[in-house]
Amino acid sequence: MIDDDPNNGVVSGAVRIQRNLAECASVQAVLDNCQEPTKPSCRNIRVQTTDNSLTIGKLTTPIEIVKVFDKDYCKIFECFADCEETISLNNLDAGTYNLVVNFYDENWRDICELTEAIHVGSDESASGRSTPLALADFTLSPNPATETVNLQLKDWGNEVVHLQLVNQLGKVVQLQTVDASVGSITLNLSDVQNGLYFVQMQSNGRRLVTKKLLVNRLY
Question: Measured between alpha carbons, how far is 180 from 81 in angstroms, rounded to an integer?
Fold first, then answer.
């Protein structure tokens, strides 16, 4: 703010609000301590369980991808881009479920990722949040890609890995199962249209890893 009479604090001229990160509606709102909105964070996600239900709350970013898998890594729930702020899954069997949440801004830029094992009901562990799953990773090259893209695997061991290519609407375009011991995988993109995709990999006991891939042919 600019006060043209700093001696007595009275604003007698024009006032301009600069760097209005909080999008305060007026000068009075600034004086009333209008604050910059809290930035979204996966730390704010709330997970609650009962004997047969799982509730995931505080999903407040412009775009979210939420997936829940059972102990055998069969997908039991997924929402893609248009998730509700609170998701409730009921009538679940007791056991361990794997939760994966990805937050993005309105331009599909990454904000954060949450991956956890969640215990529901009378599992051998206490109900609630558990230790994150084992880490693994992969890289994409080239990205943007045209006809093919190479995936270099890291820390997947000799496990069987489930790989899928998903478009922005949540449709699975490619799906395959591979042996991670090969170290690298090449995806054929010749039948894939230009656009933004998500390459997702997961194996038993390791978290779901998601990477963005841009397919961009100039012809």
Answer: 29
